[in-house]
Amino acid sequence: MLGIRISYWCVTVILRKYRYVKIGAMNETVSVILNRKSTRQFLRKAIPEETKADIIAATLRAPTAGNLMLYSIIEVNEQAVKDTLAISCDHQPFISRAPWVLLFLADYQRWFDYFEFCGTGDFARRAGLPVRNPAEGDLMLACCDALIAAQTAVIAAESCGLGSCYIGDIMENYETHRDLFKLPRYTFPICLLCLGYPTKAQKARRPTSRFDQQFIVFKNSYQRLRESEFEKMFDKEQARAFRNSEELNGAVNVGQLIYRRKFAADFTMEMNRSVKAILKQWGDD
Ligand SMILES: Cc1cc2nc3c(=O)[nH]c(=O)nc-3n(C[C@H](O)[C@H](O)[C@H](O)COP(=O)(O)O)c2cc1C
User: Fold this and answer.
1) What is the mean pLDDT of residues 42-48?
2) Which pairing describes strands 163-167 and 71-76: parallel, antiparallel, or unpaired?
3) Across-strand partners of 188?
4) Residue ID of nearest Cα to ligand 1 atom 7
5) Taking the mean position of all CA atoms in its chain, how far away is CA 34?
6) Of 105, 133, 172, 252, whose CB has the highest number of CB atoms within 10 Å?
């Protein structure tokens, strides 16, 4: 009996290591979510059209504010466009090698055009309603819609054996992306998704760690963290980040490392410039 238990334990540990096992009594969906990781290396294997259709169908079932579907999806098929994105999105060559690339737009243009088609300007004046253009709040709501749709695509894809990676850098270089995709005024390129079958190496990679939930999930009110909690929060992260001392380049803790690598990095500065340029388009003239 003990022998059987030990063998079961060994097999479980090995399978868990390679992420082929559902841990505990977990249902399949939760298991897919817990085992997901970003994929940046893809097999040169075409994705069947039926699989793509299933993923798109699932994506369009995502919750959407007021059932308005305040987003659009542009499928990027042209290699030349993928190559441009690989440069314009902070020089990430794997974008040009991704078999399936989807651009998610927050989109109020469609509804605004329809309002115009329906004569809502005159209607609003007669009814004493505000006459207005899509503004910042509408944009935030449309971004929520687009991101929820994108994440639904990620999980649907994962359940079909496809890996994916978000590209947030699509918010950079607005002028390039506006011209490339003929983006009208009331759209906002909120994220790009690269999808494809993961390579063996990508599959074997363990999911990345997360901060412990005590620092992320609060009860009833927001909790600002104290020094001792930060120390606890960054214990493991600190050790991991500092393994490669060459990376540090003068930084003495994780905060300084991330400040340099992300918060004050050139790509972040460009993202803020670019987003400001997009925001100027929204709201009343
Ligand atoms: C909004 C957003 C933008 C992201 N942008 C990029 C990106 O431009 N390039 C990239 O390689 N990964 C990008 N990622 C993936 C994250 O780096 C990744 O989710 C994170 O490191 C956690 O790893 P995991 O997804 O494997 O769990 C992005 C993820 C999100 C949610």
Assistant:
1) 97
2) unpaired
3) 106
4) 167
5) 16
6) 105
